[in-house]
Amino acid sequence: MLDRERQLFAYEITFHREPGDEQNLLQGVLSTITDGALTRLVRGNRTFLNLPAELLPEDSDILLHQPRLGLLLQPHVADDPQLMKRLQLMSQRGCQFVLDLADLDHNGSLSLETLLQTVQFVRLDASGLSPETLQERCEQLHARGISVIAGQVNDHPTYERCLELPFQAIQGRYLLIPQPVAVPVLAANRLSMLRLMRTLQESNPGPVELGDIIRNDAVLSFKLLSCVNSAYFALPRQLKSVQQAAIFFGVTRMRNWIDTMSLCSMDDRPPELLRAALIRAHMCEKLAASVPNGQPETAFTVGLFSLLDTLMCAPMSFLLTHLRLVPEISDALTGRGGQFGSLLDQIRAWETGKLNSQQVRPQVIQKMAGIYLEATQWADQVYASANVTPAN
Q: Are 153 and 174 in contact (CB under 8 A)?
């Protein structure tokens, strides 16, 4: 969920579960909270758990000791008097709730009215409601002091309509979808970035040539070395030049990291969009590394560039004319499939919560979960390094 300035407002965490597995689900959720795994995943930001309220333990103090964690509630909890008493007590003690009203009309229901007096936020379905109804309900809730969140904002016209209403946050796939443009125009810094990426792809540089390519960009060199020398990688010695780093890590990996640092320098784009590209890159690399001839470093490029059209605000086909990537990468980025296209499809299914036991084996979901958690930590480290400011 992003605020009106496209900065992070909150995360929603959805848990994978199987029918009849509620108790294991609850234990798993409580474990991730108590051992700090959930806090590390969301980096201490406000987070709402999409967890059936009926599974809440009688003693819910574990949530009360986590002021940045709240719950996402469904309207039917208003019909359970015992559960409502517990939720009201939790609310009085500082726990925050989002009521997912979706397209449900709350007027005329006494039990739902009681629930509205308990929650701090209400989420409406921006795609399921007509523009007139969305505006009416948003303004009604806002007028009574309830913060309203627009959900299911999956295209840019809907997003633009939401900006005209008093929503505190906006949530949906719109962030990952390129905005349509009649005539793509790239600013000078974008064209310079594409030229650098093209040079790295076409010239097949060695360590010395790689250092020469970015020698004149002191800021990029500084950020790159800050990243590789960070505690995350725990190197046995400090690397003092891009050439040394290319020898240590390999030219292909360093080329990928130069592309990464370049994209992270786009300070006019939402940070969560940049993190999404980094997470995709790392997940693609790890998934490719687990299969024979997977070409993990090429897969990394596919994941990183998969949001290039959204980051650059230009069609992918237009950007590819500037980059001249190998066919395997271009095919994946333009939806023509291939080995890397299937990797991207799998990651997009993971992002949207569409991987389930009917489609893939539980072991695959567990593997994806592990790779995703690792990717978020890697993305956090890289993004932090990319935003280090050189000392004067």
A: yes
DSSP H stretches of helix in the chain: 22-34, 37-42, 61-64, 81-92, 110-116, 131-143, 156-163, 188-202, 207-213, 218-228, 242-249, 251-264, 271-289, 296-305, 308-312, 316-323, 327-333, 338-351, 362-386
Query: What single string gives the DSSP state of each residue in 198-252?
Result: HHHHHS---HHHHHHHTTT-HHHHHHHHHHHTSTTT--SS---SHHHHHHHH-HH
How distant, in Å, are the alpha carbons of 197, 202, 320, 342 from that of 325? 10, 8, 7, 18
Band the pLDDT of 29: cuts 50, 70, 90. Answer: confident
Residues 6+ apart with CB under 8 A from 78: 84, 109, 111, 112, 114, 115
Give the position of tokens 């709402």. Answer: 48
Count of Cβ atoms closer than 10 Å to residue 361 Cβ: 9
> Residue 221 above 90 pLDDT?
no
d(CA 332, CA 344): 7
Tokens of 15: 């848990």
What is the residue whose two structure tokens read 């994978």? Answer: 16
> Distance between CA 304 and CA 349 in Å, rounded?
17
At 89-141, the pLDDT tens digits run 889 988 899 999 988 887 777 889 999 999 999 999 999 999 999 999 999 99
Q: Cα(387)–Cα(216) distance, rounded to whole angstroms?
A: 19
Q: Looking at residue 9, what is its pLDDT?
A: 97
Note the pLDDT tens digit of each residue in 129-184: 999 999 999 999 999 999 999 999 999 999 999 999 999 999 999 999 998 888 88
Strand order across the beta sheet in which 169-170 lies:
11-14, 47-50, 69-73, 97-102, 121-125, 147-151, 169-170
User: What domains, with CATH codes, occur in the chain?
Assistant: 11-176 (3.20.20.450), 188-386 (1.10.3210.10)
Tell the residue number behind the tokens 């998969």, with chain if given: 306
Give Cα 26 distance to the centre of its chain.
Answer: 24
Length of the chain: 392
One DSSP character per residue, 303-362 reads HHHTTHHHHHTS-HHHHHHHH---HHHHHHHTT--HHHHHHHHHHHHHHTT---TTTS-H
